[in-house]
Amino acid sequence: MKIKLLSFALAGLLFQGCTKNFDEINTDPNRPSLSNPAVAAGAANALFSSAISRGLMEAGEFQRVQALYADLYGQHFATSQGYFASDRYQINQGWLNFGWNLFYPRDIRNLIDIIKSDNASNNQKQIARIWKVFLFHRMVDFYGDIPYFNAGDPTKPETFDNQKDIYYDFFAELNDAVAKIDASGSYDSKDVIYGGNIAQWKKFANTLRLRLALRVSKKDPAKAKTEAEAAIAAGVFVANADNALAKVSNILPNAYNQISGWNEFRMSASMESVLVGYKDPRGTEFFTPVPASAAPAYVGKLNGIRNGTSSADLGLAENSFGNNSNVGPKFTVANMNTNARIVLTYAETCFLMAEAAWKGYTGASNAKDWYEKGITASVTQFGTTLPADYLNNTTDLPITPAACPGPISTLPIAFSALASEQFEQIQLQKWIAIYPDGFEAWANFRRTDLPKLYTPANYDPSSDVTPGSFIQRIPYTDYMKGLNATGVAAAESRMGGGGQKVKLWFAGGN
Fold this sequence. Notes:
By secondary structure, the protein is mainly alpha-helical. The protein has 16 helices and six strands.
């Protein structure tokens, strides 16, 4: 078991007043200062690079927050260790507190320092605003209502803000930041995503705006249409060359790679159903066939585990990590210092455009073309080749893995003539293409109920989720309640409850 809960000076802070701002806790005394104009540019870039690299989470935080929650609920992966019951919807509050106490005082504080500084450049401020939206949208989709508008302002009370209001502000922030970026201005070449390329950051912001527009389309279709059309008109990603990929190093390696050797997760049965059934060329890029050291019945196969498998059943041969597929070569420990972190891609953009076209939005025409471009872009992104006539394939269909009730889809790869089937195909292929982004996979699934993922094989007794249904949010911990009991109570009342089964606003909730 690799989890090592760090002693990060929380003991004396856990209940240090119910109104204390979250972003003041554990403030880093070594943070570069922006107060000196002579060094402000370099300090701002250092803070921004930290907000990217650490905002995407280092190994310990990544394991506790993403790998053991979002990645399992998005079902690209399933746990292979019985002592990790989060796959069965058990909540470990210590893991979540660890991430919460890094998000505000480190990641968000770094960005706010840049945005508010008199010495940071205009472009540094605008790009920091864009990245702030990116980080916050993952947290809103994780919990629901969270501290947002007053975050970083010690003169104002910490409030848990309404998800709809936060999303509306996301759109306003992205639109305004893009408008204020100075294309002729400079930006630091040490930027770990785009090397200071201002035009690329504008495309990133517009593409993120398109993602968020479709996120709210179930709850607020008129707003979704307005924001999506504006994002498309402003210019989104148009090729794999636009992909947002965060460089890594031996100092800040790729967390996926780091934890892949810990034998705590494997390919999910949902992934097995489609990758094996479709004979998908990305299958062996995403996952490694079971090695020769395994039981003979599994050697050479892409083999997955059903999410929610009980601790006892994980001890069976068919579910042991040695007989199931770990990540592909690109995501192994050997490549942790070179494999860039995937942030946002052209492939996802294509599927967003396909859905926009399917919905009839201006600026997005022909859903079939975008659907096929998305598959092609994803296959190319992962360094493999699209088989001849693959996009017209009507014979290869998802399979039924062991211990599963059926395939997760009955539809072929070839784009259907039926609108209802087209929507399912777009969301299924999008789910494949955004691998290994569990945050986005889980959020989009809650919005669309697609792809038709397997319900957990077992549910932890502590979970309030009805067997046969799916977790909708991560609940607030006792620690968060202790810091701001009034704010949490108001948020839970507004959302219709504080449990795991409470739907978030974008998914049809309050």
